[in-house]
């Protein structure tokens, strides 16, 4: 088995038909960010490189083939932070409840270190094309490394994750609308259908430009939600009459695996890094920018998770903090109304923004059109017929609705997605792509190994830990689904 793996890394046939690959689909993760909405006209910026020496990854110099972006390093730090922070943070207080104060903080720290390290590796992979060409998307990187199989596998992981995230958002819309309007007497599943019907015609729009202004409300709602969790947690922890219990350390390997996946979801930026790189004035500064960003994110997440856990203690194991602040039954107070309205304002535009790149990718693959950049429709060489666009996007909305209706809860769906696809996408694939790119540039895996034993050992250790968490956490997520 090891020999087959090394042979696949050393196979250069993946590059034989690279010239025919023109797909450039920018897929945003789980965040409604400034970069994912405003960068639809910057797709022509790419980073290329030519290795100057086969002895070390540090010798892979990067040079821009086209004009670079305009973002300073400080702005890039903010962009990366906003890209990472998303709906996954609502599960962070539960991480502390499952693992204890120290255990939860340890998971947040370890995943931050792994995520930061993988961002550095994926940057080298993006900027080290053997032919000195630009790599504009995560799927294209998979193609350069492993041919069509790599592109299909990467796109599959990305789009399954994004489709699941859309279903999560639809389910959140349904559950919170039921809380907001209980007098209507409709179940959360019925509200999911209503929200799908509302979002359906909006997905027919040609590009994100038409909904970009709505996304600003989503970002504002996200900030309000963060502040709400922190302030409510502190207030409830001080004033509550309940006897909340806390633990410093809870050793449960299965819960550790699930919590590891949830943290991966919260830190994830991998599949939008190409866009962030294109926007940077100094792309080579990305590793340092990522380190500063992840340090800030770790502090933010630690504060949110700690405050939420302080407010509700180990009760969060069974009831997520959103349902503690805004309970499904018993009516809402001021905290509850603010929480529910913020979630609805966040999830509504977020659903549309996440669905767009998935639809664009399918349209590009399924429709017989001339090559064009699907995230830059104004400059497209081909135009998607309206009827076909509506058909593709209707099917996607229907799929997300079916998933939202079938799954038992938001928490279960997030656990399943984060443990499997998100951990693979952020904790394993970057390492694989980095190694493969070095092999393509330096000739063989043994050459890379001899020159970078310590570096690769650390990388393999992180990938192995991520793989172990997929196995352990995946078992728990499936059993408790």
From TrEMBL:
InterPro entries: AA_transpt_TM (IPR013057). This is Amino acid transporter transmembrane domain-containing protein. The chain crosses the membrane at residues 77-95, 101-120, 141-174, 180-202, 214-234, 254-277, 289-312, 335-356, 390-410, 416-435, 456-475. Residues 70-469 form the Amino acid transporter transmembrane domain. Its main location: membrane. It comes from Perkinsus olseni. The keyword Membrane applies. One of its GO terms (cellular component) is vacuolar membrane. It is a multi-pass membrane protein.
């Amino acid at each position: 088995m090891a020999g087959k793996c090394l042979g696949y890394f050393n196979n250069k046939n993946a590059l034989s038909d690279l010239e025919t690959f023109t797909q450039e689909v920018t897929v945003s993760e789980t965040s409604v960010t400034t970069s994912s909405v405003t960068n639809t006209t910057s797709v022509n910026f790419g980073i290329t490189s030519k290795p100057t020496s086969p002895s070390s990854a540090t010798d892979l110099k990067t040079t821009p083939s086209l004009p670079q972006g305009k973002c300073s390093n400080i702005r890039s730090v903010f962009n990366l932070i906003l890209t990472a922070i998303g709906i996954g943070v609502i599960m962070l207080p539960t991480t502390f409840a499952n693992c204890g104060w120290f255990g939860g903080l340890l998971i947040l720290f370890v995943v931050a270190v792994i995520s930061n390290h993988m961002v550095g590796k994926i940057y080298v992979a993006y900027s080290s094309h053997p032919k000195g060409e630009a790599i504009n998307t995560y799927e294209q990187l998979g193609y350069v490394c492993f041919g069509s199989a790599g592109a299909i596998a990467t796109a599959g992981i990305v789009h399954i994750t994004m489709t699941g995230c859309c279903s999560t958002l639809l389910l959140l819309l349904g559950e919170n609308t039921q809380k907001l309007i209980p007098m209507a007497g409709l179940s959360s599943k019925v509200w999911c259908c209503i929200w799908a019907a509302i979002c359906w015609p909006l997905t027919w729009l040609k590009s994100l430009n038409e909904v970009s202004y709505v996304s600003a409300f989503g970002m504002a709602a996200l900030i309000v939600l963060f502040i709400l969790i922190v302030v409510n947690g502190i207030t409830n922890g001080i004033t509550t009459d309940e006897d909340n219990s806390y633990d410093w350390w809870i050793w449960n390997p299965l819960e550790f695996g699930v919590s590891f996946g949830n943290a991966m979801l919260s830190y994830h930026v991998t599949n939008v890094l190409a866009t962030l790189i294109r926007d940077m004035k100094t792309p080579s500064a990305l590793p340092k920018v990522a380190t500063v960003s992840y340090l800030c994110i770790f502090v933010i997440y630690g504060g949110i998770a700690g405050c939420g856990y302080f407010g509700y203690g180990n009760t969060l194991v069974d009831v997520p903090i959103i349902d503690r602040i805004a309970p499904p039954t018993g009516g809402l107070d001021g905290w509850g109304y603010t929480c529910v309205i913020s979630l609805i304002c966040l999830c509504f535009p977020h659903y549309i923004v996440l669905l767009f790149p998935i639809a664009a990718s399918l349209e590009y693959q399924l429709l017989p059109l001339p090559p064009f950049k699907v995230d830059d429709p104004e400059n497209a060489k081909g135009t998607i017929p309206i009827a076909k666009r509506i058909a593709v996007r209707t099917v996607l909305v229907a799929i997300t609705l079916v998933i939202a209706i079938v799954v038992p809860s938001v928490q279960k769906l997030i656990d399943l997605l984060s443990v499997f696809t998100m951990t693979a996408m952020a904790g394993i694939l970057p390492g694989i792509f980095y190694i493969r790119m070095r092999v393509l540039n330096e000739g063989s895996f043994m050459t890379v190994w001899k020159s970078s034993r310590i570096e690769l050992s650390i990388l393999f250790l992180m990938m192995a830990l991520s793989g172990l968490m997929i196995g352990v956490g995946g078992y728990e997520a499936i059993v408790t689904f």
